[in-house]
Amino acid sequence: MLTGSTDRSILATDVETGATIARLEDSHEDAIYSLINVTESTVASGDDQGCIKVWDTRQRTLCNSFDAHKEYVSDMTFAADAMKLLGTSVGLCLSLLKLLGNSAWINSNKEQGLHRHSLGFSLSLNLAIYLLYSVVLMNIAFE
To answer: Per its UniProt entry, which superkingdom is the organism in (predicted)?
Structure first.
């Protein structure tokens, strides 16, 4: 089991024994708000200041870090078939990261190096998943 904490650490725990498997101290500059398994050997974490980090769990190293949002990362979901990670924020913002191996590529704009869509309403994870697949389909159509 993986957990993120206000002490900025990520902890892997064996659910059967309760023993600590691994702990990444000071993995973020701010409290960790969201955490997701991306692949068997990769996780992503999001913090209170909008930073999303992608980790290699085998090497216990940081693959990449992105200042994806202006406020905390409220949730993340991953589309394995497209290798895309969607982050949402209380700042009514979406970020879309295309993961490639141990690195990530972000659809970019000139201002932030990110592909952001401001939304004028509260965003649920189900809506975010729908929007992610819509964006994925649009990207496939134009690639």
So the answer is: Eukaryota
Rounded to an integer, the average pLDDT of 11-33 is 89
Q: Which fold has domain 2-142?
A: Methylamine Dehydrogenase; Chain H (2.130.10)
Buried b (16+ CB within 10 A) or exposed e, 15-36: eeeeeeeeebeebbeeebbbbb
How far is Cα 72 from Cα 55, in angstroms, rounded to an integer? Answer: 18
Q: For the segment 86-128, what is each residue's pLDDT rounded down to a tens digit?
A: 888 875 678 888 777 544 555 433 234 444 444 433 344 555 5
| In the block, residue with structure tokens 């209170």 | 48
Report d(CA 11, CA 4) in Å as an integer.
7
